[in-house]
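Could you join me in thinking about how sequence relates to backbone shape in a protein? To get us started, please write out a protein record for me. Would you write everything just below, so we can both look at the same thing?
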Amino acid sequence: MVISFVGVGLIGGSAAITLRKRGFATRLIGVDNNPQHVEQALALGLVDEALPLDEAVKAADLVALAVPVNVARELLPRMLSLLKEDAVLVDMGSTKSGICAVARSHSKRAQYVASHPMAGTEYSGPTAAVDGLFDGKKAIVCEQNLSADFALNRALSMYHSLNMEVLFYTNAEAHDRHVAYVSHISHVSSFMLGLTVLEVEKSEKHILDLAGTGFESTVRLAKSSPVTWTPIFLQNAASVSHALEKYIENLQRFKVCIDEHSAEGITALIAEANKIEKIIK
């Protein structure tokens, strides 16, 4: 198996480490528009060699597209056209409806698998890549009915080698709507909490001295790259906006209880939120 990773940062690099270690691939090729990332990926042994995009795609049995979602949507038609007849292209982005719409009209749509491995950290670039990042996590595959059996099987083999549970969403729009709540809004919350505390810290210099593990875990995602997340928010704008509307509504409910010193109201809201324990152990 020859795999070309288009994007050798956190996601592509971590997949490369694990797939090599578990014997899934015999040759790993890296592509990245950042020369420093290419150098780092080679130095760290994430890939065996670096090639220009066109050469890398033509040489691969499996192409893993792990770049920001706006770049992925732009590159997809060109990459599909370059694929060998028996090769497969898997994109690993966090939004699916836009890229799936672009792919549907392509003559090689059957060789494409739209996926979203739900794993990551707040860090980016090849130096952030770690073995085992995907273990025990979920991978979503969208519009599997439009992928050829051989393409789907190859993508599933990759995710099983990464020790991921694969879930299927026939509807890409439903995927985007759901991840807006369970993934994208978490990042918005963390970014805005970090911004709020930093604004206060300008006048109250010691506020961060009090930061404990609760604050650190909540604001951890605020260190995530805007290069990655700005395109995600924009491509999933309608769903993220709707999720934010509900989130702000609940924040306003909590604020009213605070302003009114309503212990009963605060307790009721917290108790209602505690029900999440039935879903997340």
Observations:
- The chain has a mean pLDDT of 95.
- The chain has eleven helices and eight strands.
- The beta strands are 2-6, 27-31, 49-50, 62-65, 88-91, 112-118, 138-142, 165-169.
